[in-house]
Amino acid sequence: MVPLYGLYIFVVDDNPDLLALATDVLRYYRARPLTACSGRDALTVFRREQDTISAVLLDVYLADRNGIEVAKLMRSINPRIPIVIMTGSVSNVPIDMPVLRKPFTPSDMVKILAEAIVNHR
After folding, report:
1. What residue spans define the domains of the chain?
2. Is the per-residue pLDDT at 1 higher than 70?
3. What is the pLDDT of residues 94-105, one digit of tens each?
4. In three state form, how does the secondary structure of the chain look?
5. CATH H-level, domain 8-120: superfamily
6. What percentage of the chain carries pLDDT values higher than 90?
């Protein structure tokens, strides 16, 4: 059984191509993706869906906000949900957050999300 089956994964990225790719990969693995394309929308959706979300995949650079700031706000709202940061550079990511380094493969994405969910429990 694929570890993401049936889980709600919240993907936040302001790049529509990457957002579509991540959504397609999650659907392929039978996860249930939720999406947002800005930090503002991400926080709105996170507050509303926090009881449903199993993990967040969050880009570090968003057009309207810094992804790390968004991640910290999400953690203050609900610290039980693991957050994976997407970035091309790990130097700007807090040490306590898993990182999905760009560019990545679909299997890299699924693996790090599954590990984050298992290790966060």
Report:
1. 8-120
2. no
3. 668 899 998 999
4. CCCCCCCEEEEECCCHHHHHHHHHHHHHCCCEEEEECCHHHHHHHHHHHCCCEEEEEEECECCCCEHHHHHHHHHHHCCCCCEEEEECCHHHCCCCCCEEECCCCHHHHHHHHHHHHHHHC
5. Response regulator (3.40.50.2300)
6. 84
